[in-house]
Design a protein that fits this description.
Protein ImuA, Rossmann fold, about 30% helix, 2 domains, about 270 residues, 8-stranded mixed sheet, alpha/beta
């Protein structure tokens, strides 16, 4: 007596949960790290930055909004592991005290400086192969799709957080990145940044997300610094007999997270 032949029918109810519909937000197929921005987490598969995959960030200027967008996740990744955050080809030197004040210690940063595209790609691959590295941030404006695919494969093999920064002029070009974002200053409100999701495992998101470009602490410190500068200008411009009273004693140290930058962590005042 022979064995019964397998049924040609598929249990649709059993298999339905394994099928991803293109008009719905997909589930993460690997670990994620929360972005620290609730609005953004709600629009990402799994609710965070994908681990073991490339996230591509497109910007008009290479230094804009980097720390505002990524700092919460980097702080968490470093706290949960023991390795550094590797910066490859960063446009400006990060100012450690500013980042340390927000939870990212100076000793957790490793800055690789090189203007050569090939050297940056090599350094990025080596960093991704290091099991102790918490995250890799790479500025690769000249990288070709084949080179990006190699980095995507390296990130997948070693389950690393990988962020690649490129010009927003590349928005229409093909990319192997699992997640692709365009980040820009909000025209209506300087306190916000527009984050548009160009590519994700789910339907397109036509309306950009408006995320805060500053923490409440940074906003209050910036306002305090502006008030202090205004008082100093009054002291200089006013005649001696009507000079403004001296402000209350305060110790404020101005620091630049990215030298020459003009945004939030790029330019802020922090109480000493």
């Amino acid at each position: 007596m022979g064995l019964p032949s397998p049924s040609p029918f598929v249990d649709v109810a059993c298999a339905a949960h394994k099928v991803w519909r293109g008009d719905t937000l997909g589930q993460a197929d690997a670990q994620v790290v929360g972005t620290g921005h609730a609005l953004l987490d709600a629009q990402l598969p799994g609710g965070g930055w994908p681990v073991g995959a490339m996230t591509e960030v497109l910007q008009a200027t290479p230094e804009a909004h980097v720390w505002q967008l990524l700092l919460p996740a980097l702080v968490r990744a470093v706290a949960e592991g023991s390795g550094p955050v590797v910066l490859i080809g960063a446009p400006f030197e990060p100012f450690g005290p500013a980042l340390a004040a927000h939870g990212l210690p100076v000793e957790a940063l490793m800055w690789v400086r090189s203007d050569a595209s090939a050297a940056r790609l090599w350094a990025c691959e080596q960093a991704l192969r290091c099991a102790d590295v918490a995250a890799v941030l790479a500025w690769l404006p000249q990288a070709r799709p084949a080179e990006l695919r190699r980095l995507q494969l390296a990130a997948a093999q070693h389950e690393a957080l990988l962020f690649v920064f490129r010009s927003d002029a590349m928005a229409q070009s093909a990319s192997p990145a699992r997640l692709r974002l365009h980040v820009a200053a909000c025209a209506e409100d300087a306190e916000l940044m527009d984050v548009q999701i160009l590519k994700r495992r789910g339907p397109p998101l036509d309306t950009p997300l408006m995320l805060p470009s500053r923490t409440s602490r940074m906003t209050s410190l910036l306002m305090a610094g502006q008030l202090r500068r205004r008082q100093r200008r009054l002291e200089i411009c006013s005649p001696p007999e009507v000079s403004a009273p001296a402000p209350a004693p305060a110790t404020v140290v101005r620091i630049d997270a990215w030298k020459g930058g003009a945004r939030a962590l790029d330019r802020l005042a922090v109480a000493a």
